[in-house]
Design brief:
single chain; 418 residues; alpha/beta; four-stranded mixed sheet; 24 strands; binds uridine-diphosphate-2(N-acetylglucosaminyl) butyric acid
């Protein structure tokens, strides 16, 4: 297994390009299942999760082709509307095929995603919504089986905002008969991006980005060309590499409007942020100031950046309070950060991070994607060498992270495993 080796201490400086968004691409590619025809996606990041979804769609009979950052999906023929355990277990977002499949094929069989490193992550809201649209749901042998001759529009109130739940039901409702109103929706930028893609395919969706989304069902959709939005989580992680090293980085292709809450925390930590039409610059102080934060659904501070900001705060001047409200088990990076000399105490959903003057490099191991990123960040600041194991987590969601960081001066390299 590959690992990443970092020799800390370099102050990062320079320019770097943001890749396309993983969490925007996944539902947009799943939406191609709604269409008989060949849709193309531009600016698709080269990531393990995207390849997994490609394999899944291929398993169903769709034709997937990739040329550089352009990916096409032709789902004219769906022979097997099924997502098997072997693929779903490696990527929970596979559940995104459920809505499109039942809407297009009248049936779907999708392995139930189990719990994962960051929490239990049930899909009850996805299933409740599909039932409201008239699908019959059976759970047997670890699979969800959904059937409906044609879905019917309905009013659905989510118990809590769920990102992929909102996306699944938006997609299912595009081909339902009549009007669907989704309430208490997630408002993440990726949901707005999905609305744009669906509308380009001929759907009638509006309201994404607000609590209420309405979908006026149409009999069929057509193929479309879709441009993927920049990855806000990758963008902020790269800015955090400057924050933790006292650096100065300019990001090309980032969208500041997707990052308001996260950029506000960078400013509170003492960084100067300059926003221009297509770029974002951070000039960071030698050590960040302590900052309190709480994760929340968009437009709040994203849970997907909690580990990275915590890594920066381990070397802050003073104590910070971090509250995780989205996932019940998302402090797994704390033990590893502690092995590098961080001073973090956890009490339930709260972590108190007391800034230290130095971290020391160590071999560390991550349990999930964003936790891995936080360990890389800590390694950039630490004295000596840090080796981050289980790099396959990083490869799921960061395109060429070590190349990007080394292009701005980090001493980082991938060590090929056996
Ligand atoms: N929840 C339920 N029932 C449901 C669905 C969700 O109780 O039916 C709960 C979850 O357990 C969690 C909360 O609702 O406590 C929010 O979860 P959500 O459904 O919004 O998460 P998700 O859709 O599974 C997406 C991202 C995650 C990101 C979360 C939160 C994708 C493919 N994944 O997951 O991204 O952390 O939203 O913003 O969009 C990552 O990229 O590293 C990642 C984990």
């Amino acid at each position: 297994m590959d690992s990443i080796e970092i020799t800390g201490g370099a102050r990062l400086q320079g320019e770097v390009q943001v890749s396309g968004s993983k969490n925007a691409t996944l539902p947009q590619i799943a939406a191609a299942l709604l269409v008989s025809g060949r849709s193309t996606f531009h600016g698709v990041p080269d990531l393990a999760d995207i390849r997994t979804l490609g394999r899944l769609l291929g398993h169903m009979g769709a034709k997937i082709e990739r040329q550089g950052a352009e990916l096409s999906v032709d789902a004219s023929l769906i022979t097997e509307p099924e997502a098997p355990y072997e693929l779903v277990k490696t990527m929970r977002a596979s559940v995104l095929v459920l809505g499109p499949l039942v809407a297009r094929c009248g049936r779907a069989r999708v392995s139930m995603p189990g719990g994962c490193a960051i929490g239990a992550r049930p899909i009850d809201q996805h299933l409740k919504g599909l039932e409201a649209l008239g699908a019959t749901i059976d759970l047997a042998h670890g699979y969800v089986e959904a059937r409906a001759s044609r879905l019917r529009g309905a009013k659905i109130l989510f118990d809590l905002p769920t990102v992929t739940g909102t996306e699944n039901l938006m997609m299912a409702a595009t081909l339902a008969e009549g009007l669907t109103v989704l309430e208490n929706c997630a408002r993440e930028p990726e949901i707005l991006a999905l609305q744009d893609a669906l509308n380009a395919m001929g759907a009638k969706v509006q309201g994404a980005g607000s609590n209420t989304i309405t979908i006026d069902g149409v009999p069929s959709l057509h193929a479309a060309a879709v441009k993927v939005i920049p990855d806000r989580i990758e963008a902020w992680t790269l800015l955090a590499a400057a924050l933790i090293t006292g650096g100065d980085i300019t990001l090309r292709g980032a969208r500041a409007q997707d990052l308001d809450a996260a950029l506000a925390k960078m400013r509170e930590a003492g960084a100067r942020i300059t926003i221009s039409a297509d770029s974002l610059r951070i000039e960071a102080p030698e050590r960040p100031e302590a900052v309190d934060f709480i994760t929340a659904p968009f437009p709040g501070f994203p849970t997907d950046l909690q580990a990275q900001l915590m890594a920066c705060l381990t070397v802050a001047k003073g104590a910070s309070r971090v509250v995780e409200t989205i996932f019940e088990n998302r402090f797994m990076h704390v033990q590893e950060l502690s092995r590098m000399g961080a001073d973090v105490a956890i009490d339930g959903h709260t972590a108190i991070v007391r800034g230290v003057t130095r971290l020391s490099g160590a071999p560390v191991m991550a349990t999930d994607l964003r936790a891995s990123a936080s360990l890389v960040l800590a390694g950039l600041r630490a004295e000596g060498t840090t080796t981050v194991h289980r790099v396959y987590h990083l490869d799921r969601g960061y395109e060429g992270l070590e190349q990007k960081l080394s292009s701005v001066g980090a001493r980082i390299r991938r060590v090929k495993g056996a």
